[in-house]
Each structure stands twice: as structure tokens, then as C-alpha cells.
Design a protein that fits this description.
There is one protein chain. It is built from 15 helices and 15 strands. The protein is an alpha/beta fold. The protein has a seven-stranded parallel beta sheet with strand order 3-4-2-5-6-1-7, sandwiched between helices. The longest helix is centred in the N-terminal third of the chain and has 14 residues.
Length: 436
């Protein structure tokens, strides 16, 4: 099937073709006909499935028709982060390039109110927004949601995780009841499903399971590490490879992103940090400088790097594995863009084994382990087999399984067990016995 079979407007099809897309993805094939038919949609789909186009293309098609009499936006796309909002705005402009009269406005935090109010004063059709800034502008009467024909909630599960549930319900209440609602989420459990049921009317359900989301053009590799110094040595070795181009390194915290960036700069790398403590202007400038080649190593946190679309990124390095398995998919999706080859490397300490297992279960892909000569992790010997019983004994002040080897590290002292109680409830002492 090609896009022409989806019965979209010719101007939209021309823009899609110019963007280099010929065949729709499964989520687009299943979702777009329902949206064009006017149905509410409940879609479970992860990043990398093409879900943005699954709601943008039919939304643009709807806007080619006659507009209502009410002023304000006709389509509202609500997202959890400003990075995702900016990414969708870029996609909307690309797909609407041949719809000359159609305008898109993006309102997010971290940007001057004055600039956004100036854009809102002009006619526009699509509004892409984060919850907090949208509520502020609605309360200031700079935005009227009474003319909304289509409401899209993208990454609804993340909005709830970030505590936006009340804001979302407030915003939805300000839109017409007869609107069309499209609800996209990576997961459909608990509070997410409850919210969907409150907002949707007889929705058509679309489920694109993780096993359908493939990264065939991304080579995924797992490196086991012993500690932080081992990670740093391994990272330096990888950054010195000739085949690498631009690199994104993911860390768990903003503070660590800054620390690692400083360390890399001291070693002579063109590194820069990207995280939530930077203003929107600083983040936009950082990404632009990264695109232009002033920097070729971007040290980022998950939220800040969400939505980055740079085709020159050859490597993604998970310096710290994410606790959320969906973030892993988001991260590695920053490389291998537009059909290019990419490499995703993950560092895993012994305590990260459960995270690796969760990621592999979620993606349906076993990540191959690779060791680099001279940088191998320490080998841990298995304890020798002892007697069948599983009794505990003291060995140098530490409890060990009988027949096993003494534990390494500092000795663990255990308090004596409490005296057993007698029939009258009072504790009594055991007779002293020879120590073992």
C-alpha cells in the first residue's frame, strides 16, 4: 500500500512524497482511515512507529475543508514536553507546505509570552501546546478553544507521569463536546486507560505492539562495566573511533550531564550539555550549534533530547540505562534516521541486569554483548558447590551459605537473635553452648 490509497488531499500527498516517504507504517494504515471517517481513536503506539504522521496527515486533510465561523484554532495537539511540541510543529509545517493558507502556532514554556501572544494575534489553524503554558494563555484570554474540531493527546501516559492529569482535564473541558478526540499512548493501563475512557466516545482502537517496532538499521550493542572509571575509559575509546560522526550520550541526571560534559571538554572533545535546566532559547541554540558542527558530542537527558531529528548522528550511547524501557526506544531512535545506519551502545553495571532484561522483553530483541580488548569487565568466579543443605554459618563474622566462598568487602556484623518467648510470654535465655 502507498499513501495515495489513504485518500488524502493531493497537496498533502505531494508534501509526503517530497519528504521521502512512499509507504505508510502500520499505525498510519490503521489509524488514518478512522480519523478521516470522523471517529475517536484510542491508539497504543511507541515512538518510531510513525504515529506523528498518523494524526497530522488526517488533521491537515480535515483543515482543507471549510472553516467554521468561530475564531481560534480548529485543531489542538497537546503534548507533555516542549521538545516534542517543537518537533511536531516542524512536521506540521513540512506536511502543510503546499497548503499555503494553513498556519501552525506552537506555545510552550521557556519561551517569551510576548512572542507567543504576537503569533496568536494572527489567524492560525493548528495549535500545538504543552499543558501549563496553554492554561496560562487561556486564562489570559489569548486563546479560545471553543472552535476546536479535533483534539489530539500525544504521549498521554507521559503527561500523566509528569502530573498533568488535572491540567489535561481542565483543557478538555474548555473544548466543545462534539469534538473528535485522538488519544495516543505507549501504554494503556491504570490511570491512562481511565482517562481515555472519560475523554473518548466509542473510540476505534489501534494497537501497534513493540514487536512490530523494529530498528533493523540500528546496531544495538551492550557493554558490561564494573564502575564509573571503567565507563569513562570505555567512553573515551568509543569516541576515538574513526567511524563515529555526531554522538548523543544519555545520562540519568542533569548534574551528571554537566559533569560528564566538563570532563569531555578537558579531554579535548567538542562536547555540550542539553538538559531541562537550560532555557528554551539556550536549548534551541545548542541543538542548532550541534547541527552546524560546532559540537559533535551532545550529552543529554531524556526529556531534553526527545524529538531531536539530526541525520548525522551515527552513535547513541546510553552512559546510564533508563529506568523506563520506553525511554530506551526513544533514545536509540535518535540515530539511524531517514534510513541511515546507526549504532546504539549501552553501558550496564552488574546492578543494571534487571533493566537490560526489561528492555529486551519490551523490544523483543536480545542485545548482543561486546567486549573490547583491554577494557573487559572483571570476571566473577562462581562459588564452588558445597553440601546439599542450605544452612547458614558464620565465616569471619559474615553469614555465608555452607560450602560457598566468603563474601568480599567489609564484614557484616549481625545482632544476636532475640531470646525465644516462654508460655507466659516472657523471654528466657538459652543455656550457653560452645561457639561453632
Amino acid at each position: 500500500m502507498d499513501f495515495s490509497a489513504l485518500q488524502l488531499a493531493p497537496q498533502i500527498l505531494e508534501a509526503v512524497t517530497k519528504s521521502g516517504y512512499n509507504t505508510p507504517t502500520p499505525v498510519q494504515i490503521e489509524t488514518i482511515p478512522h480519523v478521516l471517517a470522523g471517529s475517536d481513536v484510542l491508539a497504543s503506539a511507541q515512538t518510531g512507529t510513525g504515529k506523528t504522521a498518523a494524526f497530522l496527515l488526517p488533521a491537515l486533510h480535515r483543515l482543507t475543508g471549510a472553516s467554521g465561523e468561530k475564531k481560534g484554532p480548529r485543531v489542538l495537539i497537546l503534548v507533555p514536553t516542549r521538545e516534542l511540541a517543537l518537533q511536531i510543529a516542524t512536521q506540521a509545517e513540512k506536511y502543510s507546505q503546499y497548503l499555503k493558507k494553513l498556519k501552525t502556532v506552537c506555545v510552550v514554556g521557556g519561551v517569551s509570552y510576548h512572542i507567543q501572544k504576537r503569533k496568536l494575534a494572527k489567524p492560525y489553524d493548528i495549535l500545538i501546546a504543552t499543558p501549563g503554558r496553554l492554561i496560562d494563555l487561556v486564562n489570559q484570554r489569548k486563546i479560545n478553544l471553543k472552535g476546536i474540531e479535533m483534539l489530539v493527546l500525544d504521549e498521554a501516559d507521559r503527561m500523566l507521569d509528569m502530573g498533568f492529569v488535572d491540567d489535561v482535564e481542565t483543557i478538555v473541558a474548555a473544548t466543545p463536546e462534539n469534538r473528535q478526540t485522538l488519544f495516543f499512548s505507549a501504554t494503556m493501563q491504570g490511570s491512562v486507560l481511565k482517562l481515555a475512557k472519560r475523554l473518548l466516545t466509542d473510540p476505534q482502537e489501534v494497537a501497534i505492539h513493540p514487536e512490530k517496532v523494529k530498528h533493523d538499521n540500528i546496531a544495538q550493542v551492550l557493554h558490561f562495566v564494573d564502575n564509573l572509571p571503567h565507563k569513562n575509559r570505555l567512553l573515551t575509546h568509543i569516541l576515538d573511533r574513526k567511524e563515529r560522526k555526531d554522538v548523543i550520550i544519555f545520562t540519568a541526571t542533569k548534574r551528571h550531564a554537566d559533569q560528564l560534559t566538563d570532563e569531555l571538554k578537558e579531554k579535548g572533545y567538542l562536547a555540550v550539555a542539553l538538559h531541562g535546566d537550560l532555557s528554551q532559547r539556550q536549548r534551541t541554540r545548542t541543538i542548532l550549534q550541534f547541527k552546524k558542527g560546532k559540537f559533535n558530542v551532545l550529552v543529554a537527558t531524556d526529556v531534553a533530547a526527545r524529538g531531536i531529528d539530526i541525520q548525522t548522528i551515527s552513535h547513541v550511547i546510553n552512559f546510564d540505562l533508563p529506568n523506563n524501557v520506553e525511554d530506551y526506544v526513544h533514545r536509540i531512535g535518535r540515530t539511524g534516521r531517514a534510513g541511515a545506519k546507526g549504532t546504539a551502545l549501552s553501558f550496564a553495571a552488574p546492578r543494571d541486569t534487571h533493566l537490560v532484561q526489561k528492555i529486551e522483553k519490551f523490544t523483543g530483541h536480545t542485545i548482543p554483548v561486546e567486549e573490547i580488548s583491554g577494557l573487559e569487565p572483571l570476571k566473577v568466579k562462581k562459588p564452588a558447590k558445597g553440601p546439599r543443605n542450605n544452612q547458614l554459618r558464620r565465616s569471619s563474622g559474615r553469614f555465608d551459605k555452607r560450602g560457598g566462598v566468603p563474601q568480599k568487602g567489609p564484614k557484616k556484623r549481625f545482632p544476636p537473635a532475640p531470646f525465644p518467648k516462654g508460655k507466659n510470654g516472657r523471654r528466657f535465655k538459652k543455656k550457653a553452648t560452645a561457639s561453632v
